[in-house]
């Protein structure tokens, strides 16, 4: 099912979903059609749909941006389930939301609702900062929170997760000063970060793009006491995210009074956590640690 919204972003007019709400929306509110068969998971214990969260333009052309929405088969719109919004990696210039498809399905089996965000990518041929990336990430997260009651989730238990540049986007939302839109906060309630490029200051990853504007983009330089708890996964052979940078991030979080966990995996390079790497060994290990973290903060049993 693809849900097309009349409004550009949030708040939603009214979503009426064939598997959920009984009250129909106005005919103009959305147009629905079936997802391609390959978009449906083989496991019938979860449901996947696609939502259009934003209508914008890219390279001078109109463009719809989507969220893939994964939830348990017994989901109802009246639920108040914990949720996580995932952002894919790819250096802000590549990647696809499918990176976290398996994570989403496994967490949905444990009762969570998961969202995988499509965002505009930067052109490889320039050195512009990731302004559109963080804008889309913020809009997607606010969309999910603004529509929590329609999406069957708890507006106060929405986490953000991501890998590499997607980890940057998740951490950006978590660490930057909140900027509510129409009273809707963009700050996640927990962070799950997979080798995140969250230090964009001098000497950090992404410096060529952000330059002297790094304070506007670098999560590691914007940690404060109102930020969410976090867990970070990193290989000690990562050439983009040095272990000392991750240790510094954790130390600054602790100094701010925040819960922050760091898991270091010996000999592992950047991207080690993906299901396609090492026969899925570290995907399974980091997923188990993610589940344990969510249990610690009492989001799942």
CATH superfamily: Alpha/Beta hydrolase fold, catalytic domain
Q: Major sheet: size, sense and barrel closure? A: 9 strands, mixed
Average pLDDT score: 88
Q: How do the SSEs run, as a string of H and E?
A: EEEEHEHHEHEHHEHEH
Number of domains: 1
What distance separates the N and C termini?
30 Å
| Unreliably modeled segments | 1-39
Total beta-strand segments:
9
Question: Oligomeric status of the shown chains?
Answer: single chain
What is the radius of gyration computed over CA atoms, rounded to a whole number of angstroms?
18 Å
Overall helicity: 25-40%
Biggest sheet strand order reads: 1-2-3-5-4-6-7-8-9
Tally of individual helices: 8
Name of the level-1 CATH class: Alpha Beta
Strand content: 15-25%
Class of secondary structure makeup: alpha/beta
Shape: globular
Which architecture would the CATH scheme give at its second level? 3-Layer(aba) Sandwich
CATH topology, anyone?
Rossmann fold
């Amino acid at each position: 099912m693809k849900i097309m919204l009349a409004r550009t972003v949030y708040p939603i007019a009214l979503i009426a979903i064939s598997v959920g709400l009984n009250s129909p929306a106005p005919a103009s509110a959305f147009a629905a059609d079936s997802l391609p068969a390959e978009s449906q998971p083989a496991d019938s214990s979860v449901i996947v749909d696609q939502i259009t969260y934003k209508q914008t333009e890219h390279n001078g052309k109109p463009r719809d941006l989507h969220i893939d929405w994964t939830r348990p088969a017994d989901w109802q719109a009246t639920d108040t389930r914990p949720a996580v919004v995932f952002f894919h990696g790819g250096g802000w210039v590549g990647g696809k939301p499918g990176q976290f498809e398996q994570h989403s399905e496994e967490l949905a089996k444990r009762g969570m609702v998961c969202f995988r965000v499509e965002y505009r990518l930067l052109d490889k041929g320039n050195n512009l900062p990731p302004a559109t990336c963080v804008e889309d990430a913020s809009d997607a997260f606010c969309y999910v929170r603004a529509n929590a009651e329609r999406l069957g989730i708890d507006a106060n238990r929405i986490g953000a997760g991501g890998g590499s540049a997607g980890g940057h986007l998740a951490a950006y939302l978590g660490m930057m000063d909140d900027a509510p839109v129409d009273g809707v906060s963009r700050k996640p309630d927990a962070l799950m970060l997979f080798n995140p490029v969250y230090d964009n200051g001098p000497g950090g990853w992404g410096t060529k793009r952000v330059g002297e504007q790094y304070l506007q983009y670098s999560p590691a330089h914007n940690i404060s006491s109102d930020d969410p708890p976090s867990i970070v996964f990193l290989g000690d052979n990562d050439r983009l995210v040095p272990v000392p940078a991750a240790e510094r991030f954790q130390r600054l979080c602790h100094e701010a009074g925040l819960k922050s966990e760091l898991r270091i995996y010996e000999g592992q390079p950047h991207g080690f956590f993906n299901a396609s790497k090492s026969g899925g060994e570290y995907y399974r290990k980091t997923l188990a640690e993610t589940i344990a973290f969510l249990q610690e903060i009492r989001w799942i049993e």
